[in-house]
Write a structure and sequence with these properties.
This protein has 171 residues and is of the alpha+beta class. The chain contains five helices and eight strands, in the order αβαβββββββααα. It has one domain. Helices cover 22% and strands 24% of the residues. Strands 1, 2, 3, 4, 5 and 8 form a six-stranded mixed sheet that branches. The chain has a two-stranded antiparallel sheet with strand order 6-7. The N and C termini lie far apart (45 Å). One of its GO terms (molecular function) is zinc ion binding. Keywords: Metal-binding, Zinc, Zinc-finger. InterPro entries: ZAR1/RTP1-5-like_Znf-3CxxC.
Length: 171
């Protein structure tokens, strides 16, 4: 493998933010009279609140030589952050294909907007019932393929077990 190929392979993103889903989050926040803007800069230093949780979605392997037809995940790690001035963002971690180990970006369902809006409402003092978990997993969470686990931001990865029930705040 050439140096250039090695650099390209190591520089692949292991997470993304989804600002285009902000309108869905806004609709859910507006129901309780809240308005937030999406904070485009992924900055864990200046945030005033941060919370690790999980959402659901689907992954497709984009390796043309891979035999995988994709997979659904009931546990996609996500880090939600709140910033001054009623701003937020959310980092959604990728998973690796079990067949070829290629990183894959998730296709999100409505659980993203619901989970982000729920957390922002909680931080703003809105009284809410905890959300019901409606999905049924078809198998165990495979930590070795989860970038959230590797980064210490997945409830299955170990670090979260130590912090269970503890909300991390940078202030």
């Amino acid at each position: 493998m050439t140096k250039r190929q090695t650099q390209r392979r190591t520089q692949r993103p292991k997470w993304s933010m989804f600002p285009l889903i902000h309108d869905n989050v806004s609709r859910l926040l507006n129901a309780d009279g809240l308005q937030f803007t999406f904070h485009d800069l992924d900055d864990d230093v200046s945030c005033i609140q941060t919370y690790d949780t999980s959402i659901m979605g689907r992954f497709s392997c984009h390796n043309q030589r891979c035999r995988s037809d994709g997979w659904t995940s009931m546990k996609i790690a996500i880090t939600i952050r709140m910033y001054e001035g009623k701003q937020y963002n959310a980092r959604v971690y990728y998973q690796r294909c079990k067949a070829c180990n290629l990183l894959s970006k998730p296709i999100l369902d409505e659980s993203y907007a619901e989970r982000v809006a729920y957390r922002l409402k909680k931080w703003c003092g809105v009284e809410l019932e905890p959300p019901e978990f409606s999905g049924k997993s078809k198998g165990p969470h495979e930590k070795e393929f989860c970038e959230g686990c590797k980064a210490g931001h997945c409830s299955e990865g170990g670090r979260m077990e130590e912090l269970e029930g503890y909300e991390v705040s940078t202030r």
